[in-house]
Amino acid sequence: MTVIDVHAHVFPRLGRADGRVLTDEGEPWLRVHGDGTGMMMSGPAEYRPVEEGLWDPARRLADMDAAGVDVQAVSSTPLMFGYGADPARAADWCDLVNERILEYCAADPGRLLPLCQVPLQHAGLACEVATRAAAAGHRGVHIGNHVGDRNMDDPGIVEFLAHCADLGLPVLAHPWDMLGADRMRGHMLPWLSGMPAETQLSILGLMLSGAFERIPESLRLCFCHGGGSFAFLLGRADNAWRRRDIVRADSPRPPSEYTDRFHVDSAVFDPRALRLLVDVMGVDRVMLGTDYPFPLGEQDPGATIRACPGLDDADRARLLGGNAADFFAPAPAAAAPAAAPALAEEGAA
After folding, report:
1. Cis-peptide, bond into residue 28, ω within 30° of zero
2. Would you kindly state where each structural domain of the chain is located, as residue ranges?
3. What is the pLDDT along the chain (349 residues), one digit of tens a residue?
4. CA separation for the pair 31, 15 (Å, rounded)
5. In what residue span(s) does the Amidohydrolase-related domain sit (predicted)?
6. pTM
7. Rounded to an integer, what distance in angstroms lies between the CA atom of residue 269 and that of residue 161?
């Protein structure tokens, strides 16, 4: 069966001079040390140590071979979003990043699936950049789950999501810039607690605001990290919708009736948690995601899926690759560029 990882990050080799396209400080950029290690930089400040799979496609492909991964959907590292910058500069930055991601994926276009990024702080420019990127060969778009205090149900972001539906461009939504960071000092708590909360906030916001009623049903939308804490707390949200009119004021249906409007990845790291996630979302709405190449990701891709109780071989095939093949399939109205990966149910693995 084909194994497709929908959640894998890249930081192409962009120096500080490239970062000045976005801001005068020259951020973000990548410092490569020449020994297989590097540092993600924010202006002059060190942000996070990284290893060469993040910027070297040959190393990534070798890692994929070793892990039995056939295809990765390659998306930018959230530090690169640039949502706080001037929109026009952010659009130029996204065009540059998207060009570099295409160059990176050209190392093996049959296995590396490029996802673009957009200046989400400006809906019109975001739509323009996404349209250009799709025409150039990108097979999806990677966005953060909010822009400042604007959540995914913000009218401008809803406008952008509707545009992606019209383009037939799948959307991968990633938590970032976590809420409550001043109370989550140390121990990577923003990643351990803030990220699940951010993702649940995004999903419930789209449901309870009525945004899903305004977004075309054709939109292909996936939330990273298993949808955060959403699946475990869905019963609480349904109970609140039934009992309080303030909760259901803008949503004609309870939250559980919107689970067919989006996908989630499998990055929950516990077979019992994945079993709950599949029960909540359905076997056709969960896709393998590893968070490669970061240390908090799944180091043995697909191990949680293979160990998940109650799945038969057909179910595991859907989670490991079949669902992703459908999710990233070219829209019927437009043929995929010749260099784009052709995703199939069967493959080399």
Report:
1. yes
2. 4-10+54-327
3. 799 999 999 999 999 999 999 999 989 999 999 999 999 999 999 999 999 999 999 999 999 999 999 999 999 999 999 999 999 999 999 999 999 999 999 999 999 999 999 999 999 999 999 999 999 999 999 999 999 999 999 999 999 999 999 999 999 999 998 888 888 888 988 888 888 899 999 999 999 999 999 999 999 999 999 999 999 999 999 999 999 999 899 999 999 999 999 999 999 999 999 999 999 999 999 999 999 999 899 999 999 999 999 999 999 999 999 999 999 998 765 444 444 444 543 333 3
4. 7
5. 4-328
6. 0.92
7. 29
Q: Which residues contact 269 (CB under 8 A, 6 or more apart)?
A: 298, 304
Task: Detail the DSSP E strand segments found in the chain.
Answer: 4-10, 29-32, 37-42, 45-51, 71-76, 112-116, 140-144, 146-147, 150-151, 171-174, 221-223, 263-265, 286-287
At the top level of CATH, which class does the domain 4-10+54-327 belong to? Answer: alpha beta
Q: Which two tokens stand for residue 308?
A: 């998940």
Residue 260 has which token pair? 């067919």
Task: Tell me the two tokens of residue 327.
Answer: 């999710």
